[in-house]
Amino acid sequence: MDLNALSLERAESSNDRAVSPVIGIVLMVGITVIMAAIIGGLVMGMIPDQTSQPTVNLEFQEHNETVTIAHGGGDDFDAAGVTITGSGMTEELSATADDDSGGIESNSWDNSTSTGDSITLAEDSDGGLDADGGEIQVVWNANDRSTILDRFEYSGTD
Asked: Residue ranges under compositional bias (Polar residues) (predicted)?
């Protein structure tokens, strides 16, 4: 029996020699397309921006009818996304409100709040501290999420 003749005979009678490489290429192209679609979906915004909250040490000091909240260390942050609220407040205040606006006595918090910057809250008929006291919360708001950065129990003046 001649091996060359047998090999040639088998090759002439078999039409499936190229099937395996074609199937392999089709599978590889299919897997590549699926992976590109998944990665493209993730990159193009299916996962929301994960802006992380700042890690900050807030220091609270109560004096007479005011409470001062100072940035005592940690990350600098944009105060535009910060609100001050809680049961110790008559209404929610923006942390970037102007000095002498309802409930804010002085304010150095801005778009680059850093160590040493402070905001002083006062009792005011237009908003601010509640004379009965209560909890004050400093809240970070970003991407439809809010996180309490710190809390303080205000004793009030009544």
From this structure: 104-118
